[in-house]
Design a protein that fits this description.
Layout lengths: L9 E6 L4 H13 L4 E5 L6 H8 L3 H5 L2 E3 L2 H5 L4 E5 L14 H8 L6 E5 L8 H5 L3 E3 L12 H16 L11 H17 L8 H15 L4 H23 L10
Parallel strand pairs: 1-2, 1-5, 2-3, 4-5, 4-6
Helix pairs in contact: 1-2, 1-7, 5-7, 8-9, 8-10
């Protein structure tokens, strides 16, 4: 049985999208980030093939869409509504969230969250922005600040996915106790080859390596490789002591 996702309460709302291909691209962007609730606002008719070609294996997002004639209808059951826009003006919101700030806000929000995106040509109107409680804006270069619809959806859904449903990395960092043992092993190896010459040098090196190993968030396999480096260093030193230099003259 599939466990419910913490992203299930988020829906992407597209207002009067002009090209069905862009809807298909949005479906794909959404599904790759674990968000599947799509709402279409408006009464346009779209060519199914253009949508499905760009959606690829995310056609089910389109099939399960909900469609409303107006934005007000689309948002009436939402607990938190956000307009995605970069435009500012006298009749627009005075505060903007970044995608990361939005993700942090949504983490503490119950009920349906609607993130609203406007038309490809000119985005959302002042009235449509006013219908939402908050604005999210994606930082872009002043030289070319325009993002296409699917790109904007991808960036915001990716940020939400990272914040709310982190994918496993396979890395389990070692504990501080384990970092201390690794530091002790390294310092013992250095001591065995006569590395330390100054007072307190061994103590400070032990503390330094422990802090480095901890801050690096090494995995168990990685810290074991570090330990082997120091162990091998000692063995090489001992082996060289036991093996006479072939260039030295024989002792008479």
């Amino acid at each position: 049985m599939t466990r419910p996702s913490r992203l299930d309460h988020i829906q992407i709302v597209l207002v009067d999208t002009q090209d069905g291909a862009n809807i298909g691209s949005v479906c794909r962007a959404m599904k790759t980030m674990g968000i599947t609730r799509l709402v279409i606002v408006g009464e346009r008719e779209y060519e199914e093939n253009r949508i499905r070609t760009l959606a690829l294996h995310a056609g089910d997002v389109w099939e399960n869409r909900v469609q409303h004639p107006t934005l007000q209808e689309a948002l009436k059951e939402s607990s938190y509504t956000v307009a995605a826009t970069r435009r500012r003006g006298k009749f627009r919101k005075h505060t903007f969230l970044s995608p990361l700030q939005l993700a942090e806000k949504i983490a503490h929000t119950e009920g349906t969250v609607s993130i609203v995106f406007g038309r490809e040509s000119d985005g959302l109107t002042d009235e449509e922005v006013a219908a939402c409680a908050q604005v999210v804006s994606i930082p872009t270069s002043d030289a070319f600040p325009s993002l296409n619809l699917a790109q904007a959806v991808q960036i915001i859904t990716y940020t939400l996915f990272e914040a709310h449903l982190p994918h496993p990395t396979g890395l389990i960092p070692i504990t501080q106790e384990r970092a201390q043992r690794a530091s002790d092993a390294a310092v013992d190896a250095l001591s065995e080859i006569g590395y330390f010459k100054l007072d307190q040098e061994e103590l400070w090196t032990r503390r330094f390596l422990k802090d480095v190993f901890t801050r690096a968030s090494l995995s168990e396999s990685e810290v074991q490789r570090m330990e082997k480096l120091f162990t091998k260093m000692v063995r090489i030193k001992i082996h060289k002591k036991e093996k006479p230099d072939e260039q030295d003259p024989p002792v008479l």
